[in-house]
Amino acid sequence: MAGSKWVTWTTWLVACVSYLVLVFVSHRSGGGGGGGPEARDHPARFFFNFTLNTGKAVVRKGAIVSNALGDILDVGEEAGVRERLKGSVIEAVDLEGKYVFPGLVDAHAHLIMGGSFLSQLDLRDATSRADFIERVRDRAANLEPGAWLIGYGFDERKLGEMPNAGWISQATPDNPVLILRADGHRALVNFYLLAMANITSRPDPLGGKIERDAGGSPTGILTDTAIAMVRSLQPKPSKGERKDSIMKAMAYANSMGVTMVSDMGTPAFAQSADECWSDLVDVWMEIAAQDELTLRVQTCVPLDLYDSLASFVEKNGDSLGMLSWGCVKEFYDGSLGSETALMNEPYEGTTNRGLRIHEDRAVLQERLANATGRGLQAIVHAIGDLAVDEASAILSAAGSRSKNPNRLEHVQHVSGSGALDRIRDAEIYAVVNPLHIQDDARTMLEKLGSVRSGKGRSFPFKSMLDRGVKIAFGSDWPLVAPLDPLGSLLESTSGRRHVPEEAVSREQGFRAITSNAAEAAGAKGLVGRLQKGQKCDFVVLDRDLLEVEEKPVVLHTFVNGVCRYSRRDI
Ligand SMILES: [Zn+2]
C-alpha cells in the first residue's frame, strides 16, 4: 500500500497517555471490509514506533494492532502491519521509539494484604530499637483507645536484636499492636494484645509457637499459626476496605509494569477460611463484574475451601472478565528467616529442623488429591529441603486434572538434584523468589552452613533449569519483597548475592516473569507473549531489558490495549 496516506487528525488527550492521536488510515472503497465486522475482528488500536524484543528476535520498528476486546490482531514490522491494516479508522498510539515487552506477570503475591499494607506502619527500614519505638509511638499518638495499630516489615537482623513486647507497650497502653516480621511468619504484639488474647495461659498451637522468656512469660513474639490467635481478634476489614486495598494494590502493580498477578489470597494464618471465601465471591468477583480490574488476576483460596471451590467452578466456570479462580493454596512449612522452614538436617548449631505444619501427611495428601481430582490447581508453599521433598511427593501422588500445572512455591532449599528430578517428573511448576535472596543471603550461611547454602542447594535457579524444572518468578509482596518482576529478573541474572553458578540468562529470567509466569498463573496462551491471539498486555520501558545491565524504567503499562499507568515526569 505504497499510496496509503496517514492523516494526523488531532491530539487525543486521555488521563493516562497524552500522546494518543486519532489517525485516519486511508480507506479503500468499502471501508472496513463490508459486512459489519465484529468487535473481535475489527482493529481498534494501532501501537507504533517502538523496538520489540521477543527474546528470539528484535524488531526495530514494531507495531501492534488490537481490537476493542484487547486481543492482538497483528504484530510485527510496522510497514507490514500497516499494509495488512488496509482501510480502517482506528486510534494510533506513538510509543516514541521506546521498548515494548509483554506485560510483566508476578506469579506469587498477596494483593488484598499488600494493598492494606500500603496504608499501614512500614518498619522495613527500621534499624535500631530507638527508631522502631519512635515510629510506633508516632503512629499510636493518632489512635483512639482500642483502635488497632498494624505494622509490618520488621527484621531483627537490621534491628540488631529481636524486638519484644516491652519495647512498644509503654507507648501503646490502650491499643492492641500487631507488627508482622518482613516474611510474615513471625509477629510482634504488645502487652495489651497479649492480655486481650489471653496468650499467657494458652499452650502453643499446632504449627506455631509462643516465644517465652526464661521465666515462661510470653515475649510478644508469635510464630506461624500462633499469629492467628491474635489475628482472630482483629476487626474484620469491611467489603469496602478490602476493595479499597485491591484498588491500591492494582495501581501499584501497574506502576511496576505488572499486568497480571497470581494472587495467593490472604494467608490462612492471617484470616479464617470464611473470610478468604468472602474475598473471592464478595470482593474480587464484584470488582470483576463491575469491570474495575486494571490488572489480570488469578486468585486462590486456602485448601480448606477446596470442596466449595470445586462446586463453585462446576456451576460458574473459572473466570469472569480479567479475573480467574480455581486454585487452592496450602502451607507445608514456615520460612528460613524464622527458622521454621522444614529441613532434613537441623539448623547449624541447633537441634531445630523447622516446622511441619501438617503433622498428618496422609490427611493432607487425601485433601490435595480430592482437590486435584476435581480439576483444581494445587499450590503448596515449601521452603525447606525436607518440605520440598515431602510436598513434591504428595503433589506427585495427588496428580492433576487441571489445565493448569500444580505448583510448589518458593522451593528455596533442596536436598539435591534428585529433588529437582522429582519435581520435573511430576510436572510441578516451581515458583521461586529471586528477591528473597536479598533478605536471606545474609544469614543463609550461618543458619545452613556452606554446603546447604551453596550451589544446587539454595535458590537453585540454574540447577532447576538444567534439570528441566519449569520456573516462574514471584515476589511474595507484601511479605519480604516489593511487587517487582524487573527486580526479580535482575537479581536472578546477577548471582551477586548468591553463588554465581545459579545465575540464569537474561532470556531465562525474562520468561520467568512473562510466559512461564503466565503459565503458572493459569494464563498460558492468553498472555505472556506479544503474538496474534494473545491479549494486548504490554509494558513500555526506557531501554531494552534483554540488552542492558541497569534496571529499566517503566514508562507505560497497557492491559487489554488500555493504558493503565504512565510515568508522570516524562
Ligand atoms: Zn506468599
From TrEMBL:
One of its GO terms (molecular function) is hydrolase activity, acting on carbon-nitrogen (but not peptide) bonds. The chain crosses the membrane at residues 6-25. PROSITE patterns: PROKAR_LIPOPROTEIN. Residues 91-565 form the Amidohydrolase domain. Keywords: Hydrolase, Membrane, Transmembrane, Transmembrane helix. The keyword Hydrolase applies. Pfam families: Amidohydro_3. This is Amidohydrolase. It comes from Chloropicon primus. The lineage of its organism: Eukaryota, Viridiplantae, Chlorophyta, Chloropicophyceae, Chloropicales.
